[in-house]
TrEMBL record:
Residues 568-662 form the HPt domain. The keyword Phosphoprotein applies. SUPFAM superfamilies: ATPase domain of HSP90 chaperone/DNA topoisomerase II/histidine kinase (SSF55874), CheY-like (SSF52172), GAF domain-like (SSF55781), Histidine-containing phosphotransfer domain, HPT domain (SSF47226), Homodimeric domain of signal transducing histidine kinase (SSF47384). It is a multi-pass membrane protein. It is found in: Cell membrane. Residues 189-409 form the Histidine kinase domain. This is Sensory/regulatory protein RpfC. It comes from the Bacteria. It catalyses: ATP + protein L-histidine = ADP + protein N-phospho-L-histidine. The modification 4-aspartylphosphate is found at D478. The modification Phosphohistidine is found at H607. It comes from Flavobacterium johnsoniae (Cytophaga johnsonae). Its main location: membrane.
Length: 662
């Protein structure tokens, strides 16, 4: 071979750019490429085969049989000529080739006597590499072998294209996930910022309403309270929509009294009925009393539909009816209907009314108000329960919205709630941890009206200091505070001070799963802001009247291990020993990976450890790891991540001690 020739494609710069787009150079072996190389060796009956890529200076082998090296200089490769061609290059006998007969790999080295190479061509026409068959004896491929070699080359390019597309999709998915996270975080923070002053407005208006007012003042206060409720409804609609879109809104499955729920909705809405409208509730005599389902979402659906019917009906009637349509051994199917004699909807607008920010007529926005979100949320809530909503309407004659929901049967028998024990008002002393001055003043007035004593801490640090100095019966805990937030403060109270004092979470946030997290962290009740005085008083009565134990963070449950071991005590002992040996090291590695910002290691360790924790039913620790794994995937950590890792480290010491005793 004449090395001085140094052949280069006419589009060399563009070809190299195309090669770099695939990010294939110096990657690890992959089964798909190794299998293709084996297939070429088998089809062509040759001892040497390879898939290679050619950059500025070298021929790099992604997969090879019979070569034994990962790369060679470009100038000594046969394939530098193959990438100049558009079709297969076949040299039946290198001894007869003027170009290759004196090549070192022909006269010695690999002793190449036969060579067949197909260029790997990108969809836009650049030859970035080759797939080759090589033998020590002269030979000639038949037509089937040539076709097969070309097909394998196309398969290799398809594999490269698929990998590139997957990388692009993963990048786009990551961007989309970050956008959703940013949107949810923005909405949650905005809800907190809006709800905080709204909490003060509603609270002080309620206090004002309890004072002695003349007729005009009473009218003003009533008007403010109506405006407050409307504003709160808009905020809740926007947050519900965000939860549905992000897939974080789940449908509960709990026993509830269906008849009582429907009567409660009727009683709630009948105060809004216009003077010329008859409001009816018709329940099927065969309708079940107790079912399993989501009571809150049924409330939300029917209040929205019925509220609309009452709003758009100036005379006539509005009727809510429920009828059992089907029954099996395990469930009931119930048809819910809300029918009115109101303004009705034009036929060509019937489907549009379920789109967000849309109403049947633009004029209704001005005359009747509303965001246009309600029906969209109703539609999605019904679809989340595997059903769909229908509407029939005639303009000027009224509308009917109806849907069928299936509820599971239940053997649950509703019992009367035990009366709460009386509170000793003289001795009830409360600590409020809250940084907002308006909310401090509001809660103080409310608590004073209850007849309780209140101390105020402006943040979690001050709260801990007051707890060390004074005895309290209850803590009202805001979740978002400077220096130390509500979660961190609760953790210190439960795990460092070892106090079981009841804690009620109070927050203007509306993050998905926040209530569950409050209970996991050791709080006893949850009151969203803006709060109602009656709801706060009820929460206080409940947590101070009953001794509610707080579960420890490191409670081991061996029931699952007992089940999978099938009574094999040696297997059970091996699993415990493996946990003791492996987990402490992995927790340390997790902390190191976090300090090094090693997302892949964090993701792998979190995932693996979570499985181990699930075996021992360590739910809190498993929850920590699920959160850390999700954050590692997004490569975006919260301020609490390091605290979670430190908690794992501390809690594992207790777990390991318990397991060693076992």
């Amino acid at each position: 071979m004449n090395i001085a020739e140094q052949p280069l494609p006419h589009n060399e710069l563009e070809r190299l750019a195309a090669l770099k787009r695939y990010n294939i150079l110096d990657t690890l072996p992959e089964d798909a490429f190794d299998d293709a190389t084996k297939l070429v060796s088998y089809i062509c009956s040759v001892p040497i085969a390879h898939i290679s890529f050619i950059d500025e200076n070298r021929q790099w082998f992604k997969s090879e049989i019979g070569i034994g090296v990962s790369e060679v200089p470009r100038e000594i490769s046969f394939c530098q000529y193959t990438i100049l061609e558009s079709e297969m290059v076949e040299i039946n006998d290198t001894f007869l080739s003027e170009r290759f007969k004196n090549d070192p790999n022909v006269t010695g080295g690999l002793k190449v006597r036969f060579y067949a190479g197909v260029p790997l061509t990108t969809p836009d026409g650049y030859n970035i590499g080759t797939i080759c068959a090589i033998d020590h004896v002269s030979k000639e491929l038949n037509e089937n072998q040539r076709n097969a070699l070309s097909i394998v080359a196309k398969h290799i390019m398809n594999q490269l294209e698929l990998g590139t597309k997957n990388i692009e999709l993963a990048a786009q998915k990551k961007i989309a996930e970050r956008a959703v996270l940013a949107k949810d975080s923005f909405l949650a923070n905005m809800s907190h910022e809006i709800r905080t002053p709204l909490n003060a407005i509603i609270g002080f208006t309620d206090l004002l309403a309890q004072t002695k007012l003349d007729a005009a003042q009473r009218d003003y206060v009533d008007s403010v309270q109506i405006a407050e409720e409307n504003l709160l409804l808009i905020i809740n609609d926007i947050l519900d929509l965000s939860k549905i879109e992000s897939g974080n809104l789940t449908i509960e499955a709990q026993p509830f009294n269906l008849k009582n729920t429907l009567k409660h909705i009727y009683d709630l809405l009948k105060v809004k009925v216009p003077a010329g409208v008859e409001f009816n509730l018709f329940l099927d005599a065969d309708m079940p009393e107790m079912v399993i389902g989501d009571q809150g979402r049924l409330n939300q659906i029917l209040v929205n539909l019925t509220g609309n019917a009452l709003k758009f009906t100036e005379e006539g009637e509005v009727t809510v009816s429920v009828k059992k349509t089907h029954e099996t051994e395990s469930d009931y199917s119930l048809r819910f209907s809300v029918k009115d004699t109101g303004i009705g909807i034009e036929e060509d607008k019937l489907m549009a009314i379920f789109e967000r920010f849309t109403q049947a007529e633009e004029s209704t926005t001005r005359k009747f108000g509303g965001t246009g979100l309600g029906l969209n949320i109703v539609k999605q809530l019904i679809e989340l329960q595997d059903s769909e909503i229908h509407v029939k309407s005639k303009q000027g004659r009224g509308s009917e919205f109806f849907f069928v929901l299936t509820y599971k049967k239940t053997d649950h028998i509703e019992t009367a709630a035990e009366p709460l024990l009386p509170i000793n008002i003289d001795k009830l002393k409360i600590l409020l941890c809250e940084d907002n001055l308006l909310n401090q003043k509001l809660v103080k007035n409310v608590i004073d009206n209850f007849g309780f004593e209140l101390d105020i801490a402006g943040n979690g640090e001050e709260g801990i200091e007051l707890l060390l100095k004074n005895e309290y019966d209850l803590i009202l805990m805001d979740l978002q505070m400077p220096l130390r937030d509500g979660y961190q403060t609760t953790y210190s109270i439960r795990n460092e001070l070892k106090l079981t004092i009841p804690i009620i979470a109070m927050t203007a946030h509306s993050l998905v799963g926040e209530q569950e997290r409050c209970f996991k962290e050791g709080m006893n009740a949850y009151i969203p802001k803006p709060f109602k005085q009656a709801a706060l008083l009820e929460a206080i009565r409940k947590v101070t009247s009953k001794n509610i134990p707080v579960e420890t963070n490191s409670k081991i449950n061996l029931s699952f291990l007992d089940e999978v071991s099938g009574g094999d005590s040696s297997f059970k002992q091996d699993m415990i020993s493996l946990f003791i040996e492996k987990i402490p090291t992995e927790v340390i590695q997790l902390a190191e990976a976090f300090n090094n910002n090693d997302h892949d290691t964090i993701m792998r360790l979190s995932h693996n450890m979570k499985s181990s924790f699930d075996i021992f039913m360590l739910k809190d620790q498993s929850h920590y790891l699920s959160t850390i794994e999700k954050e590692a995937k997004l490569q975006q950590y919260s301020p609490q991540t390091l605290e979670r890792i430190n908690n794992l480290h501390a809690e594992m010491a207790e777990v390991i001690k318990t397991l060693k005793e076992l």
